[in-house]
Hints:
Elements: H1 2-57, H2 60-69
Amino acid sequence: MGRLSLVLAVVLMLCAISLVTSRYQSRQLFVDVDRAQAQARDLENDWRRLQLDRAELARSARVDRAARDDLKMVSIVPDRTIYLNQQPVPVNGGAQ
Length: 96
């Protein structure tokens, strides 16, 4: 009877330690999932902000202003345009 009680006490202690360990791992996994979800939300917000920035940078008014101010480009005027005459290219690409 004494040995059986000792064996049952050891089994009970092992079960208790196993339960505590599994609860701890469960909490750790919950914390990891929560962190991953927070990071996903942050990345989604960054993605939306980058999409807005890209749309702003691609606006034609901004491109036009950058071309005029930064690159010192001017609009096309007929008196500064040079026209070149070129022989028409054959349909088959000119290969003979």
